[in-house]
Amino acid sequence: MTFLSPIEMGRYRSIETLWFTIGFLCLGLIGMGADALAEDGGTPVRAELWTHLSSDAKAINVRGMSAHFDDSGDRRVLRLEVPELNVALGEIHSSGRGIAWVGLPPPAEGWDLGSAECVQARVQNAGATPAEVTLWVVGSNGWTAVGDSSVLKPSESTTLRCLLRETFPDGTPKIDPIRIKEIRVMVQRADTAAMVVSDMIATGTVEPWVRPTGRIDVPDMVEGSPAPGRRVRYRLSDDPDAEIYGTLYLPPDWNPNKRYPVIAEFPGNIFFHAKACWSTGRPEQCQMGYGITLGTDAIWVSLPFVDRETGQIAEAGFGSREGDDTAAYTVRVIDDICANWGGDRDNLILCGFSRGAIACGYIGLRNDTIAGLWKGFVACQHYDGSNWRQSRMEDAIERAPRFRGRAIFQVDNSGSADNTGGTANYEQLMAHTDPAVKWTWVSSGLGSHATAMFLDDRPSTQQLRQWFDGLQR
Hints:
Elements: H1 6-32, H2 39-42, E1 61-63, E2 66-70, E3 77-82, E4 99-104, E5 116-125, E6 131-139, E7 145-152, E8 157-163, E9 180-188, E10 193-205, E11 231-234, E12 246-249, E13 260-266, E14 271-273, E15 277-279, H3 288-293, E16 299-302, E17 306-307, E18 312-313, H4 324-340, E19 343-353, H5 355-362, H6 368-371, E20 376-380, H7 393-399, E21 407-411, H8 427-432, E22 438-442, H9 459-471
Parallel strand pairs: 13-16, 13-19, 19-20, 20-21, 21-22
Antiparallel strand pairs: 1-4, 2-3, 3-10, 4-9, 5-8, 5-10, 6-7, 6-9, 11-12, 12-16, 14-15, 17-18
């Protein structure tokens, strides 16, 4: 037997300890995968979320600003320059100022955020005036987004954090962290602005995401010809404005020799508020129609508000000529769907959320031609006569008798604080609508200005689906 001297034994133990330490660290790094040991008491921090994007920034979605990556220093930063933030960029605030943004798409395999607590970024105001900046994590399929915002003075910095498990007041998740469409940095309420964004990472660890029972996914809008089970960008072939489009969804069992009910849907107004609302004002964000039918046995078209003066979709307001151009476009869309895609002219439903709900009456009853189309309305959170923009109650009362359908379904639209079925806000319209029309008033319980309630099996949505089925008989 060989014996080690005390000096040799000490060396052996030192080497053994060294190798044990190295092995432990390696196992720890393997266990953390892409995570790294981080600040804040060892909270896991993942790699920066934009490493898949090239420095030329060609893949990012930029609107109303210039954006480029600066990789010259010891870390990547995103530099944003907003030369003039004007109302033409979208929503009109009381300040008369608009919105600009940059959207960062995920890698091809998506971001692995199913167990992440939040997404954060460091933002510095590099401009000469105060500006509001918002960091958004945007879910797919128009659910909504989670955001964090701050008004920064010149040279001021802050870390914005978007909580991925944020919920609506009733506990419904705002986004699915496994299905993220983009991360967006938005500048609002400023004349000009310059921002430097850095350290865009996911932090923290929570229990793996579990999909809510009964939750459905609205199909993404894709390019191409309409086909069963697909939702495509839809343009009228003879429309002079190529930038004006809607979306068209044909049910999986679609057959050119059959006729199908049609649900036409208007989107809400463009509006972004980190703690209250995410609404793009564009037709691809619509989701009520898909939720009503569960994507089966009906054609679903999402409609734009039309601005013929600019040749663009009107993200804010009712469109040119106070909505007359939107009404004319809607009639042409319905005619096309009934002539070419199997729409049943005797089973046409108009629905909408917020601005879109107001449009059920403001646009859908604008004249006898368009008013004669509809068998039913579904309005969520507002209705014609809400005194928003041109929708005044005295004019809505004149439009109301034009409705010649059978029923109107109202979601979260009563005058009572808890939306439990009161009709205080719209009793005058009910009085001027044909008494044979059946009105239904329900509360979703969501507790927020959003449309997520239509994507699950809550009682109000089940009642709406039964209402729609009954309306076809």
